[in-house]
Amino acid sequence: MSVITLKTRPSVLAAGTIVGLKEHDGPIGAEFDRFDEDDTFGMKTWEQSEGESQRLALNIALDKAGLRASDLGAVFAGDLINQCVPSCHGLSGFDAPFFGLFGACSTSAEAIMLASLLVDGGYIGACGAVTSSHNCAAERQFRSPLEYGGQRPPTAQWTVTGAGAFVIDRHAKPPYVAEVLPGRVIDRGVTDQSNMGAAMAPAAVDTLTRYFHETGSKPDDFAAVVTGDLGYEGSGILVDLMQAQGYDLSAVHADCGLTIYDRSRQDVHAGGSGCGCGAAVLAAHFLPKLSEKKDLLYLATGALMSPDSVKQGLSIPGVAHLVRFSAKETADSGKMQSEAAGFHENAPDSPAFRENAPDPPAFRENAPESAVFRENAPDSAAFRENAPESAAFRENAPESPALHENTRESAGTRENANESPVAEPSERS
Amino acid sequence: MDDKTYQAYVKARAEKSPLGADMTKAFVSGGAVCVVGQALGDLYRFLGADKEDAACYVSATLIVAAALLTVCGVFDKLAKWAGAGTLVPITGFANSVVSPALDTKAEGLILGVGAKIFLVAGPVILYGTAASALYGLILWAFGGRA
Question: Under an 8 A CB cutoff, do A149 and B102 touch?
Answer without folding.
Answer: no
